[in-house]
Amino acid sequence: MTAAAPFEIFLAALPGLEPLLAEEARAAGFAAPAAVPGGVTVTGGWPEVWRANLVLRGASRVLVRIGAFRAFHLAQLDKRARKVDWAAVLRPDRPVRVEVQCRASKIYHARAAAQRIERAIAETLGAPIGGEEAIALKVRIDDNLVTLSLDSSGEPLHRRGHKQAVGKAPLRETMAALFLRACDFDGQEPVLDPMCGSGTFPIEAAEIAAGLAPGRDRSFAFEDFASFDAEAWAAMKAPAPAIPAEARFFGSDRDDGAIRMATANAARAGVADRTDFRRQAVSDLIRPEGPAGLVMVNPPYGARIGDRKLLFALYGALGVTLRDRFAGWRVGLVTSDEGLARATALPFLPPAPLVAHGGLKVRLFRTAPLP
Ligand SMILES: C[S@@+](CC[C@H](N)C(=O)[O-])C[C@H]1O[C@@H](n2cnc3c(N)ncnc32)[C@H](O)[C@@H]1O
């Protein structure tokens, strides 16, 4: 290349969520989604890169494969890096930083390799190197094959730009969205999170129901690429007509501060009219009027907050409340601790794969509609 369409687009995912992200990409109309370790590959051109950043709720970031070549030593890397048509993708006035990972290759010194590529970019294109705001060029040298990928997202995509306030252990929006998908949420039914913290589940669900694109209010690294077309992007971003509010999205938490945060986050996301947050302990939970829906909950887990024995009692109480008052509702429970999940005595379906989250591995436990 450099980056003549169509090319490979890599949608990075939290390990364990690749198949769900592949499903999301397929449903969103991306071409040839294939789950691979660490993400999903699709093919497309620049408009698909922009659209992936704008609409995919489950991708952590979107990388663009701009080229690949073999290099067996640093002088060869230097020479081949100078042949890349950097001007087709990068601008001379925007800083770039190069991050290299080497594996099973003759070139094993990542920093030395990064310096060669940085120098090639600086000397052939004239772009400044480094700095906080720099566009990231991610380079993998694997079995002597050098693969160049531009990070088109910048800030990770779970930062939708609405959540200023977070609690002790917030769930990533990307993970919340894919767990909603795993529970077959389609925007038409109510969702309730009885331990909502900063409100991630109800806010994601309300946005999905309203047809709001997750990237509508933030900026992206690709806006600084040579290939960027501001007019086409503005047209792509133009808000779709709002879907009338029907289903409601409920969050409660025993902590006052959590409810204040969740309420403010929902207002910033533009879904205040669809969400309902209140301070309430799980034991006081009331089933909302209207049709059954989905309980999504991410209770505290021992390794992060509190003491495991108390947590057994808490999970037990949650299970009793849901079994007694939520017949017909489905449950999706996220925890790192299978023993705690079992303490709810909820009739879980076979467990989903483990997902890496903040140094822990968590898992989604789902039920069918409760009897
Ligand atoms: C792991 S955090 C949930 C984080 C949330 N998913 C988010 O994205 O911000 C667990 C939450 O459970 C709440 N909690 C703990 N015990 C509770 C109880 N008995 N009733 C209601 N909420 C409780 C805590 O206040 C905390 O906000």
From TrEMBL:
GO terms for molecular function: methyltransferase activity. Residues 8-63 form the RlmL ferredoxin-like domain. GO terms for biological process: methylation. Residues 160-343 form the Ribosomal RNA large subunit methyltransferase K/L-like methyltransferase domain. InterPro entries: RlmKL-like_Mtase, RlmKL-like_Mtase_CS, RlmL_1st, SAM-dependent_MTases_sf. Keywords: Methyltransferase, Transferase. It comes from the Bacteria. This is Class I SAM-dependent RNA methyltransferase. It comes from Rhodovulum sulfidophilum (Rhodobacter sulfidophilus). The lineage of its organism: Bacteria, Pseudomonadati, Pseudomonadota, Alphaproteobacteria, Rhodobacterales.
